[in-house]
């Protein structure tokens, strides 16, 4: 078995709109974080909230050439509200993050601004020949935040934390319309001054500002390169689309309704016959209680916004979470308490925090936790958290991404459940998505629904909805196989005298996980595990470099995917992360659906590659 992909290429290989990128050696990951040209210059893909996709870079170049002043950077968003929140974030954070190391200039009023760009076909008949053009009833409007170039890192933070940037598929559609319009203008007025001043000729070649080594490209050249790239690598995908595995984008609204029913467990009779039914354990739950968002972090962000609007106040982050969850709680609103161990005395400290704020009439707005957590695979005692939340009228928000609702029931305990649909729900690693589910049986349900109404926007692009629906049809059938494979790999690793610790829900806070694990025969412990070795970082590097699977960011894929998680997620704060048990030598592994005997042989070979003490 050897599924490794060359450095910088899409993961999976030759996948259009892949959400991961190959970083096959330990040093590749370190050099990526250091900004080494040998890595950055080879990257054609990346996790979309961290690496701005090539189509988005090209679209930014197009918009900048029309609207930007010299020395301005830009960031594009799918709605005016997203863009306006980005502007507010920049004005709020510029003075807070200003330091000797980060010398952000303080923007003057109006210096950070929003412009709109409309993607509307000039030739309506030509647009109607395109599947999406037949679907859309109105032009696509995107919103561009223009700002001084030195403030761009703050705009990038907002993009990364909130997950509200535009998708690569939407960017590609806007570029397609720009290209079609230019071709039409050239055909109709080939010698007119307007054609001589076309978008391509107006391009000044300025860099997009999204990446250290990304140079400026004209819209024509960028879209031509993308079109050529797609033709070469997606022949198989085009074939499957022609034969109907993907629905036409005109059915996107119906696909979103299917996704909401699927997540709520309220499926059609035909879907139940196919074995796709899942009982969410909550009476009265309907698809109306499910909100689809563009990314998993969007789910956390919109839930946080709704709670801020509903009651304000600080939040508590219980347990060590995925990095951007904590950033959202800390940077948007009045801040958060961080109880990063999520065990033992942290429960007592949580109780003290809640009591102290209740007495000062400054109540805590919510407790956020992950079950299990990423990357330590700890499971909080949801019964205890629920009791504390009820006692102090605090919302309990649980992220079920790692466990997934195929394995665990956290909705019975929570007011709100958030999840990244990018991961195991999709499995194919080619589309982003997220969900928010409200528990209709909790006392905060009505005010939460009202608060969601004021902040929620349906920003899932039609093509992304179509792919996500297609990918998730067999979600409930895939998870048991992943469970079995992951448990076998975890047990193999535990038997090795070269392994210091395997973090997996069966072995980590096991009693807490048992309380939320579904009682069905197919439920298990999920596909994610983390491992540390007796020999420290040198042993981790030997294991990682010799592990013959795909290696890059993300998880929940149908194929096995590994990463030196702490290096990628906490490179600038390694000492801080280590205080909570998230060590720099930790290797996180997401197990896939490969034949088990091949998986075990692959892991044994990687273990054998670690030098004996």
Automatic annotation (TrEMBL):
UniProt record, GO biological process: transsulfuration
Taxonomy, superkingdom: Eukaryota
EC number: 2.5.1.48
Segments of skewed composition (Basic residues): 203-214
Keywords for this protein: Pyridoxal phosphate, Transferase
Cofactor section: pyridoxal 5'-phosphate
GO MF terms, alphabetically ordered: cystathionine gamma-synthase activity; pyridoxal phosphate binding
Region (Disordered): 186-224
Region forming the signal peptide: none
Broad class of enzyme this protein falls into: transferase
PANTHER family attached to this UniProt entry: CYSTATHIONINE GAMMA-SYNTHASE-RELATED (PTHR42699:SF1), PTHR42699
Name the record gives this protein: Cystathionine gamma-synthase
Species name: Coemansia pectinata
Gene: STR2
